[in-house]
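HOLO CASE FILE
Compound: flavin-adenine dinucleotide
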Amino acid sequence: MIVIGAGLAGLAVAARLLAAGRDVLVLEGSDRVGGQICTFREGALVVELGAEGFVARSRAVPALCALLGIEGELVDQLTTDTYAVESSGLMLLPPGEAARRLGFQVPVEELGRGIRSLRLGMGQLTDALNARLGVDQLRLGSPVSAIRGTPGTLSVELEAGAVETASSVVVASPARRAAAMLANGAAAPLADAPLMSNVSVNLLYQRGEFRDYPPGSGLIFPDRFGSVGLRALSLVEHKFAGRVPPGQALVRVFFRPVGDALSTWPDERFATEATLAIGHVLGAQGEPLRTWVSRWADALPVFSPPYREQAGAVDRALQAQGVHVTGSAFHGAGIDAAVSSAEIVAARLGAPAEPR
Ligand SMILES: Cc1cc2nc3c(=O)[nH]c(=O)nc-3n(C[C@H](O)[C@H](O)[C@H](O)COP(=O)(O)OP(=O)(O)OC[C@H]3O[C@@H](n4cnc5c(N)ncnc54)[C@H](O)[C@@H]3O)c2cc1C
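Model generated. Tokens follow.
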């Protein structure tokens, strides 16, 4: 079995297949596993550069953690209190209101319930999945360019020229990449899959630099900050315990880049805008001790009803060819959807989600 993409979904399918005693080869285009999950760890610091958690109702993610023996590492969000910046100061929002205003793609009943993560960040999950793969079962720096053939005899061509064969292939890449790979055009409708970009800046400060450091998990910026793409910020150590050294504060600022900012602004510009905004709303006096800018161009799928329908139709057509798509690009935004999707595909391939 070949799995294309070592993001969470690809790794989760591979783990389920391996647990069921199947042969697996995972081909990852980049030089690291995890995809949109990317956690930086250093000493007492845990800094999320990609996804920070999964919806609290998730059943699939704890089940996967159980399979990996890390369910004891799951952690809950400490507080879901979120503020809006008003002219009079910070105003506590009703539960769920921040997620609603930010347009999060979660069901109404989920709003305000917060997220869960792992003690060492979401990267702890992809690290544990990665540890399941032997050296012969994962190839990094191996972008796939094409999938050809008929059910039962599929060939997977790598950009570097090599060809691998398999009876079934699992595609766990973003949708537009999948469209480009399917040489017979079966996924062509996904070539224009709607996507959003995201930039976030993590800034580490001395806690004493702040005039106001409210006890909540974060705030959403007022519309006037939207001209530079600023949306919200998280007060990381209020969200999850044990991620920031004592006496320090980690603030994560989220941008939805406007105009051509993503291609024209250097990292320093995003860091400067984030620093200015933190100075304005939280009264931070000095410069941050460290900053991490992470850019996610065209990363987040937008599940409009037409796209959902299109992705479903492509999924069904590909299954008949022995190709199975999985991940949040096809089956719903976010980590829970990515893992649930992986579970369904693994079960279809004879590896049901039974924790050992
Ligand atoms: C900044 C940010 C914050 C987020 N926050 C949250 C959050 O708090 N909660 C939440 O639920 N979700 C969040 N998400 C979304 C969540 O991270 C994703 O839905 C999830 O991680 C997607 O996993 P995936 O495996 O489906 O896809 P991906 O993570 O996109 O993995 C796809 C993999 O395929 C590889 N690939 C691509 N092309 C090829 C090719 N040709 N050949 C081989 N490999 C290829 C890629 O390199 C990548 O490793 C966030 C995303 C971002 C970017």
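CASE NOTES: The chain has two domains: 2-36+125-193+302-348, 78-113+195-299. The chain is about 30% helix and 30% strand.
CLOSED: yes
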